[in-house]
Amino acid sequence: MPTIVIRLLPLPSTDWFGNVTISCQESGIRAELCYRGNSFLRRQSVHRAVRGKIYMPLPSKDVFEISGYWDRPYHWRKLKTLIYDAKETLSSLKPSALIDEEGLSPMESTVIWSEVSQAIISRSWDKAREAKTAVEEKQRELARKRKSMGESWTPKHFTARRLGGTAHLYTD
Fold first, then answer.
1. Quick one: 10 and 43 in the same domain?
2. Who's near 103: CB < 8 A, 6+ residues apart?
3. Do 50 and 66 touch, CB atoms closer than 8 A?
4. Which of 72, 85, 159, 172 is the most exposed place for a label (fewest CB within 10 A)?
5. Which of 45, 67, 93 is the last residue of a domain?
6. Which residue intervals of the chain are DSSP H helices?
7. How far apart are the first and last CA of the chain?
8. 9: Cβ–Cβ under 8 A, 6 or more apart, which residues?
9. How confident is residue 171, by pLDDT bands cut at 50, 70 and 90?
10. A GO CC term (predicted)?
11. Do 113 and 101 lie in a common domain?
């Protein structure tokens, strides 16, 4: 799974870094992607690059190769077909804001993370860090409380299956 790297110096920035494998249990198709973060020298050829392939494992057959950048357009190598243009998508994206909490569960992610989101939008990094820490501490407190009561947490919209690792699958 890729991880997010947060840098404070020389300028605050975030990057994705690492490998991810995505599998379709129905068709067997797999995607292996490698996210490359920012190097110290900020080489544009590496900065926020995504490389990978989509393939059928049995019989082993590459379907597509992917190359590009996670914040810019990327292509399917064999078809040279644009599959996603991050600049176009992000340029029209409006930041979400929680206006009215009425009717939402207190465990709804938009409620839980709203203070963090607002601090990030206003570029108040100290407030964002404090709010994030408060969210994490509250989650730890709830986990301790569940454990002391002998309760286990069950996701509402996902089921967990162990097939060598942990996979979280969406359920209707």
1. yes
2. none
3. yes
4. 172
5. 93
6. 86-91, 109-112, 114-121, 125-148
7. 24
8. none
9. low
10. cytosol
11. yes
What CATH number does the domain containing 146 carry? 3.30.70.3490
Q: Which domain holds residue 4?
A: 1-93
Kind of pairing between the strands at 74-76 and 166-170 = unpaired
Determine phi and psi for 138, rounding to 5 degrees. -65, -40
12-60: per-residue pLDDT in tens? 777 777 888 888 877 778 888 887 766 655 565 667 788 888 887 776 6
In terms of Cβ atoms closer than 10 Å to its own Cβ (0-12, 13-18, 19+), residue 66 is buried
**Residue 98, CA atoms < 13 Å, CB-side half-sphere:** 18
Question: pTM for the full model?
Answer: 0.43
Q: What is the DSSP string of 114-129?
A: HHHHHHHHTT-HHHHH
